[in-house]
């Protein structure tokens, strides 16, 4: 499958059914269309596998249990139920881990934060939070608190995942806090936790500290955690999921779940999008979600250049593997945006003029090779290109 394919990818009845199921509730027309598509499913085992891989199996199971299609063998539905129960246990473990992070790390250190996506989104917008699959926990914290937070996490049993060689040495913690935007650790319960110093890739789209100040409280278990307001979260997931070409179907369910919630106000969302320069991104995502939710969806009907391009690549990503998604990501116009039309002229000029500075950003491998105390770590910026030049010379001499 080509990442630059100009044609809309073919859609099987199975994928069409999954797209219809990518919402919390079906209306009458969607129900009729779903039952008709159930009769066209040739391989329920492959259907179940795709639903699992696209993180939507619990929602799919609930729809099928309500529809009771005659074409679905009872043993296939029973197998889905077994896997859904296992996913529920996983998701409840992730949700519980979020509360533990608040109690063990963030509250004792009095670190301001906001958690976004994943379990906090499920707790806020899903009637059954365990229905929403969460692979990890994302938490935004001020960069100046990162070293202290990581030290505490390592002390109480969290283990490093990225960078994997992270240690509790003060100079090591100072390095990652200064030069890494995301540090990933594993909780004692085995849940991956990503601590973010900023919420976007460049730091030019969002003022991350202001997002922390705008946080709201929601109850997760018996703990009140800090979350993004609905308008900020909706705009952010449109940006994030478009950056990944909507390759996971539970992201479509998120859009539906948030729009059904009483706190959703379309005017506030559009005003928030305009404030961040993301109006076009949000508008196109809303149009795409409406198109994909239509029981009469025809991939060959045109909906506008931008919507059609997002649809084409997203539908391809939904059917591709991780390698295909990585190739799509390699073709993005910038780290923050999948498409050029998403960004402003100001952003594009800034990326053109300053994007090259990323080549001076030190890597953890450089720190491990030449560990320096925190007061001398500014030297890593000129050292990185010098090291790359030196390695190139050595390879040239070897050849």
Q: How many β-strand stretches? A: 7
Low-confidence stretches: none
What structural class is derived from the secondary structure elements? Answer: alpha+beta
Distance between the termini: 36 Å
Q: Biggest β-sheet, characterized?
A: 5 strands, mixed
The average pLDDT is: 92
Provide the helix percentage: 40-55%
Question: Which features characterize this protein?
Answer:
7 strands, globular, 399 residues, 55% helix, alpha+beta, 5-stranded mixed beta sheet, two-stranded antiparallel ribbon
Q: Could you characterize the architecture of this molecule?
A:
It is built from 18 helices and 7 strands. The protein is 55% helix and 8% strand. The chain is an alpha+beta fold. It is globular and about 70 Å long. Among the domains are: 110-227, no CATH class; 362-399, no CATH class. A 5-stranded mixed beta sheet has the order 1-2-5-4-3. A two-stranded antiparallel ribbon has the order 6-7. Helix 5 crosses helix 7 (146-155), helix 10 packs across helix 12 and helix 13 crosses helix 14.
Short description:
The chain has helices at residues 13-20, 28-38, 44-53, 57-67, 74-109, 118-125, 146-155, 170-179, 208-213, 230-243, 250-260, 266-275, 279-292, 305-319, 322-330, 345-354, 364-369, 380-398; strands at residues 114-116, 136-140, 159-162, 182-186, 192-196, 216-220, 223-227.
């Amino acid at each position: 499958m080509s990442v630059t394919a100009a044609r809309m990818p073919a859609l099987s009845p199975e994928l069409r059914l999954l797209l219809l199921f990518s919402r919390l509730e079906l209306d009458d027309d969607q129900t009729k269309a779903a039952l008709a598509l159930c009769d066209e499913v040739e391989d329920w085992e492959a259907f179940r596998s795709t639903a699992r891989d696209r993180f939507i199996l619990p929602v799919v199971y609930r729809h099928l249990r309500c529809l009771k299609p005659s074409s679905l063998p009872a043993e296939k539905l029973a197998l889905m139920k077994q896997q859904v129960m296992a996913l529920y246990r996983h998701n409840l473990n992730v949700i519980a881990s979020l509360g533990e992070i608040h109690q063990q790390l963030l509250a004792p250190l009095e670190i301001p934060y906001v958690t976004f996506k994943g379990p906090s989104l499920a707790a806020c917008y899903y009637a059954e939070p365990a229905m929403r699959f969460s692979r990890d926990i994302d938490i935004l914290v001020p960069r100046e608190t990162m070293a202290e937070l990581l030290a505490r996490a390592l002390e109480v049993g969290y283990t490093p995942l990225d960078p994997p060689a992270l240690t509790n040495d003060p100079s090591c913690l100072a390095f990652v806090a200064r030069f890494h935007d995301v540090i990933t650790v594993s909780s004692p319960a085995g849940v991956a936790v990503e601590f973010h110093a900023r919420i976007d890739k460049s730091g030019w789209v969002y003022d991350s500290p202001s997002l922390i100040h705008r946080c709201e409280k929601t109850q997760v278990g018996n703990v009140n955690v800090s979350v993004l307001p609905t308008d900020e979260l909706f705009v952010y997931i449109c940006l994030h999921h478009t950056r990944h070409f909507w390759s996971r179907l539970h992201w479509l369910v998120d859009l539906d779940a948030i729009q059904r919630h009483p706190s959703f106000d379309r005017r506030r969302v559009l005003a928030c999008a305009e404030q961040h320069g993301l109006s076009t991104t949000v508008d196109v995502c809303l149009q795409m979600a409406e198109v994909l939710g239509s029981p009469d969806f025809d991939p060959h009907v045109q909906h506008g250049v931008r919507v059609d391009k997002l649809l084409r690549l997203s539908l391809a990503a939904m059917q591709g593997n991780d390698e295909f998604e990585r190739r799509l990501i390699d073709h993005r116009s910038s780290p923050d945006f999948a498409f050029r039309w998403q960004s402003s002229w100001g952003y594009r000029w800034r990326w053109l003029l300053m994007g090259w500075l990323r080549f001076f950003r030190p890597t953890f491998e450089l720190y491990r090779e030449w560990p320096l105390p925190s007061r001398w770590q500014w030297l890593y910026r000129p050292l990185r290109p010098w090291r790359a030049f030196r390695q190139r010379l050595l390879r040239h001499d070897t050849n």
